[in-house]
Amino acid sequence: MIDVCEVHAGYGRHEVLRGVTWCFAAGRVTALRGSNGSGKTTLLDVMAGIRPPARGTVSRPPGGVAYVPQRTHIDPRLPLTVRDVVTMGAWQRRGPWRRVSRDDRRAVESAMDDLGIAHLARRRLDELSGGQVQRSLVARAIVCDAPVMVLDEPMSGLDIGVRRELSDVLRRVAASGRVVVQATHDAEAAEASDQVVTLVDGRLHRHPSTVPQRCHISIPDHRSGSSVVE
Ligand SMILES: Nc1ncnc2c1ncn2[C@@H]1O[C@H](COP(=O)(O)OP(=O)(O)OP(=O)(O)O)[C@@H](O)[C@H]1O
C-alpha cells in the first residue's frame, strides 16, 4: 500500500494540498476525483516522489511507482516506435542501458496486446492519435511491473470501448496485488473503480461523504459493503 499522511504541498506560496491523509490499498483501483485545479496531479506527483511534500510523509513500497502522465514528455521528433516506448518500462525496472531480456520482450508484447496496440508496434510516436499515445504510455507502465501505478486522467481522449477495456486492464493490474490510483473526470471510470476519493479544498474525502478518513481505521467499502482497512 501507499500511505500518505498529513501531506501539504503546492507551488511557492500557493498551498494546494492541505493535510491529505489516506492509505491507498493494494489490490484495488482507486479513482481520484476533484474539480479542475483541485490538486489531483499535484497529489499524484507527491505520491510518485516527483514533488516532495512541504510537510507530511509518504510511505511507498520498495520497487518504485509507475507513472502515466497526463501528457507525454517524450519529444515527438525522436524516432521512437510504440515498441521502443513500451520497452522503456523494462529499463525503468532494470536501470537504463541494461540488456533487455527475453522475459522483458514477452512482457512488452503482452502489454501491447492487452492495450490493443500490438498492430501499431512499429509505428512512430509522432504518427499516432492521442488515444494511441495514451495506450502506449499505459502499456509502458505495465511493463515497469512496479507495486504502485498512478495514472493522470488515463481515459482522456479514449473512445467508450477503449475506456472500458482500459478499466478492465486496470482491474487486472490491481488484482495482481498492486496499488492503482487514477485521477479521472470520467464518471464511468470512477464507477468501475473499487473506491472513489475526492479532493476538496486541499483535502481528501471518501466519496460521496465529505468526512475525511484517517489511516488504519476499519470502514465499510461503499461498493461491496465489505470491511476494508484504510
Ligand atoms: N507548475 C505549477 N506552478 C504553479 N502552480 C501550479 C503548477 N502546477 C499546478 N499549479 C496550480 O496548482 C493547482 C492544482 O493543480 P493540479 O494540476 O494539481 O490540479 P488538477 O486537479 O490535476 O487539475 P485538472 O483537473 O485541471 O487536471 C492549480 O491551481 C494550478 O493552477
What is the CATH architecture assignment? Answer: 3-Layer(aba) Sandwich
Count of distinct strands? 11
Bound molecule types: adenosine-5'-triphosphate
What kind of sheet is the major sheet?
6 strands, mixed
Average pLDDT confidence is 85
Q: Beta fraction of the residues?
A: 25-35%
What is the CATH C level class, in words?
Answer: Alpha Beta
Our count of helices gives 6
Q: What class, by secondary structure content?
A: alpha/beta
Query: What's the CATH topology name?
Result: Rossmann fold
Radius of gyration: 17 Å
Q: Widest sheet: strand order?
A: 5-6-7-3-8-9
Uncertain ranges: 209-230
Number of domains: 1
Percent range of helical residues: 25-40%
Listing every helix as H and every strand as E from the N terminus to the C terminus, the arrangement reads: EEEHEEHHHEHEHEEEE
Query: N-to-C terminal Cα separation, in Å?
Result: 9 Å
Keywords:
230 residues, alpha/beta, Rossmann fold, three-stranded antiparallel β-sheet, 31% helix, disordered C terminus, binds adenosine-5'-triphosphate, nucleotide-binding, AztA-like, transport
Task: Summarize the helices and strands and which ones pair or pack.
Layout: E1 2-11, E2 14-24, E3 28-33, H1 40-48, E4 55-59, E5 65-68, H2 82-94, H3 102-114, H4 130-144, E6 148-152, H5 160-175, E7 179-183, H6 187-191, E8 195-200, E9 203-206, E10 218-220, E11 227-229
Parallel strand pairs: 3-7, 3-8, 5-6, 6-7
Antiparallel strand pairs: 1-2, 1-4, 8-9, 10-11
Helix pairs in contact: 2-3, 2-4, 3-4
Bound molecules: adenosine-5'-triphosphate (ATP).
